[in-house]
Structures are given as structure tokens and as C-alpha cells.
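Subject: complex prediction, re-run

Hi both,

The earlier run crashed halfway through, so I resubmitted it with identical inputs.
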Amino acid sequence: MTSPPKIRSYRLDPAGFESALKARLRVGRRWGVVAMVGGALPVTVLMATADRHVLVTLPVVVPLLVALLAFSFWRGMRLARERERPEWDSYQLTLSPNVLRRFVATRPSVEILRPEVTRILEAPGMGLTVSAGNYRFIFIPEQLEGYAGVRERLALWRAIEPSRPARTKLLQLAWMLCLIGLWLASGMLPNIWLALLAGAALIVCACFSIRETLRLESLANNHKARVVLMLGFFMLAPFARAILYFGFGMGGKWLR
Amino acid sequence: MAPVDPAPDVPSAEELQRELESVRAAQPPDPTGREAATAQPSVKSLVLKRLWRVLGLWLLLVLAFLAIWQFLAP
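This time it finished cleanly. Structure:
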């Protein structure tokens, strides 16, 4: 007769919430600034090339954008604290010799069997990500009580590799800028056919993003619905352009 | 030196299933007393419920563009 497997449950350190949140948001802010500068600079240069009067508006527009960014950081911090505290408090990781299970209230539980593990990545200062394919993963923050023991046990499942968060963030940023660029192009390109072509590319890219989001197993349905609706809103832009152009003769003269 | 992948001694599918059920049973109750997300409505129903807001906002923006265009047109 076989003995029952050794099962142990772990929770997150309640005192570690603030520091983990601040560390995560600090990285998010850094990339937010990069996205803002990377997105706003080419648009400003393009507009200034078309009309030099745009430069006169910069002393007003730049402080306005900085204020908007500061407000979004402050609001992001508040919302993240409200939403993530219950998730932090309810986080439970259960580990047996061949099963890893993560429970978080309001999210689907994720289970990974030892033979299913395809990758274990470690980000210093953040934690471990145990993946089973592209759509199922469990994140284990460093603030887990007994983190070192869990890490040691998981290292026996598969070799732990260092993660490259900068590369992932860069890819996410490039994808986001691509979507925003196509969205702007579908609304602002003076040539209607080029604008509609950009719109078609936007629909294809947004559909791909929706498909990938729906496949993620660890996301709550509520969150998935929000992403689908946001991308759906983006996808309506080419239809608006076509209606305004063909129905009401509204052209893209503002960029000529 | 490249990390060495430990050789796994993989148990059978039945053993894994039994272990998975033991892990599920061993899960301590959630101290926050919240419901697990398994009881959540589907993505489709959530999207359909909020779709009118997105379409309404889109229509509003189209109408706003039209109004501005009419106002600015010579």
C-alpha cells in the first residue's frame, strides 16, 4: 500500500503586500513613461511638420499630459490596492510531490501537474512563474511564506531559468503601440483606402489579442470581458471612418 | 554552465489523478470567505451585458464628430 502524498499549503505574508505592490507599480510607471514619450513624440513631430503652429500649443499640452500621467499613476495605485488586497489575502498555494495548485478568490483556480511543466522562470525581486504551455501558469511571489522551500522543491521538477522581464515588457509595449498606431491611422490617414487598410490590419491584430486573452486560464472572466470590450471598441474605428466618409462625405482634410 | 534538467520519475496518470484530488481536498478554506471564480458568469454573457455601453459610446463619438464637422464646414 502506498503512503499518502506529502501535501503542504502556503500563504502570502500579509505585511509584504505594500512592498510588492509598490515594486510592481514602479516598473509599470517606468514603462508608462516610455510608452507616453514613445507615442507622443512621433505624433508631435508629425503634426509639427504639417503645421508649425502646433509648437505654440506645447507649453500647454506638455504640462497637461504630465498632469494626466501623474493622475493616472495615483489612480492606478488606489485601484490596484483596492482590487489586489483581497487577492493577496486569499492567495493559497498547495504543493504535493507532483501537483501545484493556486487558489485566489475571484479567479479560477489553476492546477499544474509535474509532467505538464514546460518552464519555470525566476525574476529577482518578484518571484517564480511556473508555466504549463502558453496559456496556463502560476505566479509565486517572493513574499510567499516558505518561498525558499517551495523554490527548492520546484527546482526538482524542472531547472529554474532567469526571466527576461525587459524583453517581455518591450514586446507588450510594441504590440500596444502597434494597435494604437493602427487605430490612429484608420481614423486620421487622409487617403481613405489606406485608412481602411490600416483598419483591416487593426481588426486582425485585435482579434488575435482577443483570442490570446480568452485562452489564458488564470484570468477571471470579468477581466477577460473588459479586455474583449476594450478591443471591440478599438475595432469599431474603421467602421466609423467608413460611415463618416461614404455616408456624410467627411474626409481626412485635417492632415492635409 | 547550462542548468541541468533533473530527470523526473513520473508517476502514472491514475496516480497523478489521485494526487490531484488529494490536493484539492487538502485545500484549506479561504479565510476571506469569498466565492471561487468557478461560479462566475461566462465571458460571453458578461460581454453581451455591457455591449450596449460600448456601442452607445461609439455612436456618441460618431455623432460628436458629425456635429463638429457640420459646425466647422464653411
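The mean pLDDT of chain A is 85.

- K.
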